[in-house]
Batch of 3 targets.
Target 1
Amino acid sequence: MKDLRNLNKKRIEIYEIQEYLQIDDYEKLVEAVIKLINEGVITPIKSSKQNGKKPSLFNRYNIEKKEEDNSKYINELCYKLNIILDKTYYMKNIDKYKRDRNYVIKLSKFLDEKQELLNTEVSANERSFQIWGREKFLIKEGGKRILKNLNVSGKFLNIYSTTEPLAYYSHHKNSPQKILIIENKDTFYSMRKHMIKGNNNILGEEISTLIYGGGKSIYKTFKDFEYCVEPYLLHRCNKILYLGDLDYEGIIIYEGLYEIFKDNFNIKPFVKGYKFMIDKYIKENMILPDTKEGQNRNIGKIFIEEFTVEYKNKILDILEGGKYIPEEILNISDF
């Protein structure tokens, strides 16, 4: 008997079965349909109703998918993959295993043949290339999902995340010194240009090193601070100052930095810089831009408590008035 599955259809009418099997006699058609049902090839669609003949048949049937023989993959999961890998998920999801199989096998082969490489901590991209020959696979191309399916942790792979290199300029390399972290690129470039000319007095403060923060990405970079800078910047007597936009987001960035540095360094807002920004806007009667939508306004007190009552009130008036002062209010002529 010809296989109805070769029609590549999900449903079939009774007359189509008759035509495909080339059966003229109704009783033989009934026998064929019963046989197909018993073999699990088709199942009746009861909502299609019966054809009214004796014995009656339903007018429409589902063509069931042929069950695949997965014994090869089950055997592979049970007996051929490295014992460290937890195969539970893939045993329950063979189709997912077929999709991920090449990557799982590469990981298994790595553990079989090169597991000693895990004794050396390397970056996630470096480990990814060792295992799969694709440096981005682990982080960006599905590697995390496969590791999760196999119950393998990043800790087991002995990897670390990398951050963007820290951009900074030092007027000198003596310690202790004052370090100024600048949130925005334009202000960093202007201040660096000022310092390259031999001037390290910025808004009334002697600054020895400028560091570019880069907004919210600052957290990840500064958590690796000790690996990103030269030893003179790690001196515990150094003073770290921070200057960013005078808005909720800029203050929250400072609060996050404070938590990172407070146990090892003396970190404060660059009060003279913020006061200059406020004074300039008032003196020049500037119209301030509106606060960006969606900002988290839940700021603490560690920033604002560094200011006098006069400037606290001015800051709160700006913030509560739905305005902010961008750091770009400063330019090289101000320094």
Target 2
Amino acid sequence: MRKRNLLKLILVGMILFNLPNNSLINAAILKGTFYIDAVNGNDIRTGKSEADAWKSFSNINKSVLSAGTKILLQRGSVWNKRLEIRGSGTVNNWISVGSYGNAVVRPKISLKNNRDDIAILICDLDKTTGEAKAQPISYIEIKDLEIENTRLGIYYRSVMNTSNIGFRVSNVIFNNINCDEVMIPCNAGTDKHLKNRQISLQLKVPKGNLQTVCENFNGGINEFIFPAAIFVGGKTLDRQLVNGSHSTVLSEFEVTNCQFNEAIAGVMSFFYWPFRQNDGANAWRQIVSKVRITNCTATGAVNGALAFDGVNGGAIPDSNGVMRPDKDGWGLIENLAVTRGASLPGRTWPNGTTGVIFSSTQNFLIDKCEFSGILNQGNPDGCGFDFETNNHQVTLQNSKFFNNDGHAILLMNGGAVGGNSDITIQNNLFSNNLKSSDSEFDLLFSLDWDGNKNVKVRNNISFLRPFNKEDKPIGFVNPDRKYITATNNEIYYLDEKAPLQTIHFLGIPYSFNANKK
């Protein structure tokens, strides 16, 4: 008997030895509703009820989630580790991360603002079996949480070139989204060339403790640099030209009812990649498509409460060329209030600061928003809104631009990837911008030969400072730009000794001591 049992053990051992390594790994596939309680939970339980809640994210992080799976975090609990989401929902059965319980305080993920900090990682690279494979990440929702003290709040990461539909973030509060380990070196000293060298270095180093297809580390190279509350990015794409190869990573992306408090950036996509080495015109404007941002607030903005690169919102022009959301409401940015930039030392950017920046982005209506109080700390810009390059069919209307260090709106030169075209700026209210700038125009638009076309500026009201910081007179918009059509703009100059002027904007009265031009 002993010999027979010994032979059986030897035979089993030989079979196991010759199996592929990944067959020895028991990768979990989770389906259903799972509860996590940082205080009273225990990871050896089932996680399938409040009484049997897990304690940490460990069981989630090593699993793939099936469609319809819900991960519920106990209100009042705090976790200091990353949550990782792998898996794909369906249009009727989303994967959801949310909250449960009666505590007033939301469930919170709080990290340390370190270089590698990411609070929630959603990734299309699945190595839970020990073998790298593509895992779609469609129909995923994050809601009712608080995320603080991290470099990236939520990172929606594509490294396997999957095409996904449906990513929604709602009712999430983000606090102190920053990374001094990165921001302070990039702003150190007075030599701009050294600062840009440091920026390049920070971009190229591995970061985030992220996997690659071949390794379980060394990810993050050229993927991101700015701290951001929500970042859609990755690194699977090469030169994305309209007439060349291209792909859409994510369609139907929505952010609603979120707060970005002291966030270097709020919602950001694909910055620095894949366009950073592009030498062709008209880069692909649809790495992300069908986007809606509504009812959000932001403070502490440096690199943009919105920073979009390669995004097609999905709005459609009406007969007058004004953009309108499509029949499903895509292409709308509404009720976004950016009310203050960052003032702490090191929380700025040597190449310029902004409330919003668009690059290679198209088909948006921006309505009933505010872009105010952006600081530059002696660096360029400090503007409310920056049309950087290669943007097309954007309408910006019914919005406020108050007390920015720089311009209300900046429209830059085209660079290698093309100029801006079919931009409409209408029915907005501007006041007291260019507080710390040598610019001579509140709306600074680049030269005629930079490739910009068909920019309309109409029916706006502007209360201008009389002089910039070099005591040069300030105008509203440069009248010499041939691609601009400026009509019916009402201009005032602020003067403490002037009579009080009261105007009504979106039903609210505003009063300024000013003289009408």
Target 3
Amino acid sequence: MKKKVFLSFQILLILFISSDVYLFPSTTQKTIWDRIMAEQSELNISRGVHFMNAADYSKASIEFLMAIEKNPSSMAYTMYGASLYWMGDNEGAISNYDKAISMDSNNDIAWQLKGISLARDMKLKDSLDCFKKAMEINPNRGDVLMNIGSVYFSLNNITDAISYLKKAIKVDSSNSLYYYQLGLIYFSTGDYYKAIENFDRAYSLKSDYEDAALWLGISYEKGGDIKKAQKFYKKAVSLKPYDFFARYKLARLEKVPKNLENIIEPCFGLTRNDEKGGIPLQISYSVSKFDSSSDYVNPATKSLYENLIRIDENQDATVSVDIIEMKNFTLEKNTGTELKKNLQSRFNPLTYNIKSKTYSVSASSLEEKKKQIKKITDDINSLLKNDADYRINFNIQTHNKAEANEQQKNDLTYIPRNVGNDMGLWIIGNPWIAVIEEDIENSKNFKTSTERITAALGMLLIGDISGSENLFMESESDFEVISYLGRGVISFLNGDRETAIKYFDMALKKDPSNKIAKKNITWLNENK
């Protein structure tokens, strides 16, 4: 079977930021003002890095902009680009990395981060050139070596891929991500013993590493050790309950029908409240020449509306907005009697007009939520001047309604598997798709209803809607509720809400206590 290609990247920002990075070069040409501004710029960068580590990329970007204003250094542009990358503006990130490199061609961090952004755009050979330039400047960067290996793997050069991952581990043998990445490469070659060895090392270094636990299970299953496979699939589900791929793999090995139903039933919910409200959504938009006319569509507030309207009706949300008016800036060289006056005014920069506001969206029906969001977007637009350029950053945090101190059990949303993780890992292509396809191919006769129902879920996860629907129908006699839930999801994906409601209603009639069916019907009725 043709192997799928995948690729992983990480951004390790704090690792690269040491006091040596910011040392100001000593030259006789620099004025007192220049030196003061350079020192203040370093403080802004330091505060920005603090915000980056707290995943508050909007606040970080403002600090980096202030750093650029006071002293437009290569590092300031690098870090500003990184903050934009994490808010989804890859084009803006690359532009700032290029500025950084034009100022200092030996800035290995800028080369590394530009390589990551290019890889995100699938420009793999250009990405590889950037990573190799970073390695040339600093050969002892384990993350750069890992990324070079990752690109080689995506280019089907397995020998060099393994070689560079081993070099990365030699540089830092305590980094779990390097072992995990090497495990994926060995798994793709069919060397399950070495895959297990590396996944196990990654998991032992980071006990909450769900991806490592999951791929340990897959590798053990490939090697024929079903008990260990089940153990690690259960661990993966406990670490990440909304990982439907992990649930699918665990269900395939379950022999008791009722247990199988309990494992896969959460995969058919149309809404989910993530634990503790989930990870904040942070997005950034460049708004050029704002126009207050009635037919003008502000791309930033349009995106905000689209994201807020999707929030579950049982969740509240807090929206933090930073509005930055962008202006061209030329640092004046101030000396003598003007220095004190400028110090007082320019330590709190006036060039960027920054407005920050926080809004609340309460849990409510769809119509009421639309009214709340309309007030927010109207207020934001009222703060913008005609014919001005802005950078607008949003931070959207959801909360469980009347959230209790004790952890609540949360429902799950039907979404494709999230292939990123909290380490900043990017996977281009999905290796789990190849695993599901191989499972289905190896059991294509589907002799039992258990095989049919798990294959139906697998097909649904990889987007084979018609094949999935047929198998759900064939499984109805033994897994009636699951069959109805699955066909309801498929009808929803096909845009047929009435039929979806019909199937969820059938599931509810069969099992009146079924929470998934109840919530799906409620959500569909309120989101017409």
